[in-house]
Design goal:
The longest helix is centred in the middle third of the chain and has 17 residues, at 133-149. This protein has one domain (29-281): Alpha-Beta Barrel (TIM Barrel), CATH 3.20.20.370. Strands 1, 2, 3, 4, 5, 8 and 9 form a 7-stranded parallel beta sheet that branches. A two-stranded antiparallel ribbon has the order 6-7. Helix content is 41%, strand content 14%. With 301 residues, the chain is an alpha/beta fold.
Length: 301
Amino acid sequence: MRRRIFLRNSAITLTSLWPAQLMAASNQTRIRVITRGDDLGCARSLNRAVKECYEKGILKNCSVLAAAPYIEEAAKMLAKAKGLCFGLHCDLTSEWDNVRWKPVAPPEKVPSLIGKDGTLYQTNAEVWANAKADEALIELQAQLDRARKLGFNIKYADLHMGTVQRVPGLADKFGPWCRSQSIIDARGVGGRLPLSTKYGPDREKLGDYVEQLIAALKAAPDGEYLIVGHTAYDDAEIRNLGHPGYPGSAVANNLNWERLGFVDPRIVRFTKENGVQTIRYDETQAAKEQSKGFTQAKQKG
């Protein structure tokens, strides 16, 4: 692997290069980062923040919550955005106290996914105790169909709250389902950055998250990584979210910091000057390997 290059650590060596060589050295790609914003459609504040992070920041991927209340608004704002890679945020929970959503599939087809109030269960524990894998796949297919109908070109599928992984039998069915739909199974794609974020008693991020993110990128070996953020503004709408153990004030604080992690001028400048390439899921090596199986799945079907 090529040695990582930082201008501040290499000033003596680089001053001997011609200007063109200096520019090429400073922009060498040493790290590729999949930048992903989750929960599109969950809130209007979040929809606006995703748009900002894509247009002015480093966001390249966006995961769609097809069952969420503001997904149609999100489609009008972003579905035709060129350069933004959309994925299905596969969702079996409706986690907030004050904002709830129902399944996309007809309730009679997915009774094991629904709580007493007719919405998706609030916690993973409830889903894992009740959900049936076949009904979960019916719901995920309905979510994918809805997202596509709204105009999103879905390229990948990832997991909302990781719920899919522990529904009995569902994790094994998820990969084949993705292949049958010609979408990337995003599980395991992209490494984890050595991020040292600390949290307060209400799970609120402490310190300057942007500086923490930059420090993690500096410390990371050359390779391909994933940064996931839930982007929104610290406003009344987001402070209305929350659930036991995670109050709305902490949610708003965290989502605003995660927005800044994609659009703050410091992170934008750092990626440009230090050989960090932000990429889409369909630009990853994993995507290229998985796509070989898409044709085979279609032929078998």
